[in-house]
Amino acid sequence: MESAPLYWRLKRQKYNLIGTRCVTCGESFFPPRSFCPTCRRRGRIEEFQFSGKGEITSYTIIKSAPKGFEQFAPYTVAIIKLDEGALISGQVVQGTPATIGGRVVPVFRKMYEEGKEGIIHYGIKWQVDGTAAEK
Amino acid sequence: MTDVAIVGVGCTKMDEHWTKSLRDLSTEAGALAVKDAGLDGKDIQALYVGNMSSGRFIGQEHLAALAADQAGLIPIPATRCEAACASGSLAFRKACLAIKSGEYDIIMAAGGEKMTDIKGPEAIAALMGAADQEWESAIGLTFTGLYALMARAYMNTYGLTRDELSQVPIKNHFHGLKNPLAQFRFEVTAEQVARSAMIADPLRLLDCSPITDGAAAVILVSDRVADRFKNPIWVKGSGQASGTLALHDRPSLTEIPATQIAAKRAYDQAGVGPQDIEVAEVHDCFSIEEILAYEDLGFAPKGKGKDLLLNKDTWIGGRLPVNTDGGLKLGHPVGATGIKQLIEIVRQLRGDAYNQVKDPRIGLTHNIGGTGATALVHILGKER
Ligand SMILES: [Zn+2]
Known about the structure:
The structure holds 2 protein chains of 2 kinds. Chain A is mainly beta. In chain A, 9% of the residues lie in helices and 41% in strands. Chain B has a 9-stranded mixed β-sheet, with helices on both faces. Chain B is globular, with a radius of gyration of 19 Å. The A-B interface holds A 1-2, 6, 10, 31, 57-70, 72, 75, 77-79, 87-91, 100, 111-112, 121, 123 and B 120-122, 124-125, 128, 132-142, 144-145, 148-150, 152-153, 156, 197-203, 246-249, 253. The structure holds zinc ion.
């Protein structure tokens, strides 16, 4: 569960898919890294805008959910290989079922609520490309 | 170089211990280990405690000092070690290194977790503390979900079927029948596994280790004092390696590089290879992980792990029995698990296991934290 300061800190990355890239070796990072694990001190990190388009490498359907997500179960989570190179875990919105190798595009959605009065967390989910997904 | 031996072991029942707190359980395990070694508490010079998340499970931090206090071991140094589900093996390795440094001759390494004081969804969220909080937990992933991602990728790549995967819980439940400390003691069939509740597709309830309370402890000694004890079991190799915290940061979902590296280090130190191992405890937190472990530890070639199950090689009576105490399916109090595994191998090598393999001389334990961001492999031997 994210605290308000953590949620605020990660807002740009989570809303806009802004990651980083190492200019020295060309590797891109999403989630962003501030230090290139390959080049280390010789790496030069800059911001990098991901398109969010990519391909599912594996997926699962979560039936038994952790605290804060119970009301959404069952929901699909996939690992997505972004076209720009990085890999990320993300929810796949309901609609066309996920498949390994399936193309996905990002959509902006509500992630979860911290109770009735708490923060509503938003972020990027993915939907199977070329299909209409539920809101 | 100082050699290290294990001379005493103690373990509580793996259970939902509603009437016992973590301090009761750790004291019980420690007292059993001291008694098994034929020692007195005052002989212990240091304590290392493996625990994943007592802060989230019971609101208690500063656990090592508490454990020393409750066991009447103060003022000896007490240190807590945390590497998620590998915390127990980490405490053991730290104790080995402390003896090798020459600082101590007799140490207790223990592990414990009290997981049933909070509700199920809270426990699932607490366990997710071992994953990437910002990018895995925040999207609703669970540990079953993470291993389900690995299971689906493996099934897709290597053609593993549901019934083949079910051989892991079928074998381990069978092995656990003889273990009086196991949380569950009943056999399961392929049909029961395939019909058990779906937790995170494709993993079902009987693929998962349970939420468990328990503690385990061992006494380690240096070779300088080992001849005072009957039946010392020697630590031949100890390997530890790290991997990316997030599963998605790994190029392959069907192997765990940290296991491979920790295993190589342990094999090299012990001067043995996978073919020399006669009994093993591997980290079967979810069914798929036992098959990955066979391959990452070099017991089977990539993609062929299931053959060890189908040929009954890893069943009791086979050429390399694995998880003879029932493994983690029959209890996974995360901080205690690594120590519990070491105890089973010590018992096998001493010849007093509940489910005894015939005269093994070399055994192995494999314990991982999270999805493999930490891996520890230990090799134990009957001879120094
Ligand atoms: Zn670089």
